[in-house]
Amino acid sequence: MKTALDDRNLPLKGITTDGSPLYPEPIRKVFGDVPHQLCIFHIIKDLTKGILKAVAKERERLAQTKPKLKRGRPSSTDKEARR
Question: Region (Disordered) spans which residues (predicted)?
Answer without folding.
Answer: 61-83
